[in-house]
Specification:
It is a single chain. With 235 residues, the chain is mostly helical. The longest helix has 35 residues, at 102-136. A three-stranded antiparallel sheet has the order 1-2-3, covered by helices on one side. Helix content is 52%, strand content 5%.
Length: 235
């Protein structure tokens, strides 16, 4: 955000001047944003932004330490969410001058970590289950049977630190799931989230996807096809 040295600042101003000639409205807006906007932020808002950012970094470090110590992300993320709410109250204008909210950016970053870790941990267990099935002819009755032949330790749900939820179905298939980002065990409910209907990992429970049964395939093939207008986008 700095204005740089004299030469670079003049070159930048010249480029902005060209923008004014090409598109006066957008060019003038860029100049106001870059110069009066920057200096106003620097003198009246930058200290509060930097303080809020430093406090959020500290809260993130503490949350990461908690997750490492407890080997679970759920409570650590809840702690960070509470700290972010306190920061918003203490610094209501932090990050808003240039359209960037520090707490929100950090929380979104931690959310991505949660989603990636849920998928990674379930994938490791799913691979172990398949190896067990190939060697023994059927899936195990419980996850403890994977240790130590296929896993070094009992697989844990990365959200709450408890054993991953698993049950063997009567037809020989299985249901493996994490409680998901909300931390609530809904019994393996794969109902999609309204905010992300196509992301299985963000459903009520993050249920590991398995191949559709013959009945499910038949029902899907018999379902009437939806008609879309020519050139229309599919949902």
């Amino acid at each position: 955000m700095g204005t740089g040295g004299g030469g670079s600042a003049l070159s930048e101003l010249a480029e902005l001047g060209k923008g004014v000639l090409e598109n006066p409205r957008a060019g003038l807006k860029a100049i106001v944003y870059r110069y009066p906007g920057y200096w106003a932020w620097k003198w009246w808002q930058s200290y509060d932004d930097e303080l809020a950012n430093a406090q959020m970094v500290q809260a993130s470090l503490e949350a990461a330490r908690k997750a490492r110590q407890e080997k679970a992300l759920g409570r650590a993320f809840q702690q960070l969410d509470c700290e972010a709410a306190k920061l918003r109250q203490a610094h209501p204008r932090a990050g808003m001058w240039f359209g960037v909210g520090t707490p929100d950016l950090t929380l979104r970053f931690f959310m991505r970590i949660e989603l990636a870790e849920i998928q990674r941990s379930l994938l490791v267990t799913a691979i172990a289950l398949k190896r067990y099935q190939v060697r023994h002819g059927a899936y195990p009755a419980e996850l403890a049977q994977l240790v130590p032949e296929f896993l070094t330790e009992m697989p844990r749900d990365i959200i709450d630190g408890q054993p991953q939820r698993y049950r063997l179905n009567p037809d020989g298939s299985f249901r493996l799931y994490s409680v998901g980002v909300d931390g609530v065990d809904d019994g393996g409910d794969p109902t999609p989230s309204p905010e992300a209907t196509r992301q299985w990992v963000r459903a009520k429970d993050a249920v590991w996807p398995v191949p559709a049964s013959a009945e499910e395939v038949k029902a899907a093939l018999e379902k009437p096809a939806r008609n879309f207008p020519p050139g229309g986008a599919r949902p």
